[in-house]
Amino acid sequence: MGERYSVLRDMSGVRTASPLESARAGGPVPPQAPAAGSEPHVEVAELSKHELRDVSRDPEVRAVAPVMPTALIQPIEDAADGRAEAEAAAAAATWGVKAVGADVTTRTGADTIVAVLDTGIDSAHPAFTGVTLIQEDFSGSGVGDKQGHGTHCAGTIFGRAVEGTRIGVAPGVTRALIGKVLADDGSGDTEALLRGLEWALHQGAQVISMSLGFDFPGMVQRLTDMGRQPRFATSLALEAYRANLRLFDALMRMVAARSAVGPGTVVVAAAGNESERQNGPDFEIAVSLPAAAEGVIAVGALAQSPTGNGLVVAPFSNTFPQISAPGVGVVSARNGGGLRSLSGTSMATPHVAGVAALWWEEVMRSPLPASASTVVARLLAGAVVSPLASGVDVADRGVGLVRAP
């Protein structure tokens, strides 16, 4: 029996170059650029080695990779949860909303379509009153959010005020795509993620937010459970991770090519929470997939300095993000109603997704080309470093704190 593989196809036209051409003798060949108006399509199939070879030679196929497990980037529950909620209520807006300037901008994210690929959403929460939520389940556990992670993230992007507290960066968003790519226990796989991405693209998402990561240890464990020796399991998992990185790079090139015939899509993902900066620089880990893929905006997390000297990098935040946002003590929608405070790059990512929606509105109402590339350029150029504490390394915070138009 073969292994399960994700197969990425471009349905816009047949390429003439083989996807394996760069591996042939005679030196590397630059990858062929996707055709304008690329139409990504994901298939999953069990393939033997022989079948895998045949599929990879199909001129429509852009990349092939083994299906890998994914997981939500586990947030850190705040010990001072109630205090953070009380402080947010007293201030009328969360510190994150204020830090990114969403409380003083004239933009609200109106007419922007945002997709959240996560654990689903509590559609009955008052934070989402007036938002048309298009839900699709790719996890096999049904729509809705029993975990709470997706609800919290969505609340930060476009949530309405709850109990007098503003939690949403872009509360003018009225249409949101909710792709449930992680099951109720927070686990998933690349099949669900890729199908969710394909769905969001075809539904016209202008911003896609992903607070999740590839579960490399889970892949090693799965292979070990299947009887592989640990060193072989680790090697095979590394091979699968590398193949998936190439697949996501190919997918993001197709996403970029779509902007040649339409507005395109800004894709944002969490850098990951695996670092332990409090233990020293030897305990820092770089951005993981899917944030590590070409063209994805990787987001790091910032915290308020206890001394009040500016924003600092959160101890858990992975290094080499592209941009940073508030990610500690973030108050947003709680599953079942009310508010809760969480910390993580999962919480920083929706701040950037929300600001991206604000920039979409800004660009659409300006003479500038209304394209994803314009929005990304403005988003990155608009970041600031002045609110950061002195000594924060560029490798840890990227271009700086994301800011609204």
UniProtKB/TrEMBL annotation:
Pfam families: Peptidase_S8 (PF00082). InterPro entries: Peptidase_S8/S53_dom (IPR000209), Peptidase_S8/S53_dom_sf (IPR036852), Peptidase_S8_Asp-AS (IPR023827), Peptidase_S8_Ser-AS (IPR023828), Peptidase_S8_subtilisin-like (IPR050131), Peptidase_S8_subtilisin-rel (IPR015500). The active site is at D118 (charge relay system), H149 (charge relay system), S346 (charge relay system). The keyword Hydrolase applies. Residues 109-364 form the Peptidase S8/S53 domain. CDD domains: Peptidases_S8_12. Residues 1-42 are annotated as: Disordered. It comes from the Bacteria. Keywords: Hydrolase, Protease, Serine protease. Belongs to the peptidase S8 family. This is S8 family serine peptidase.
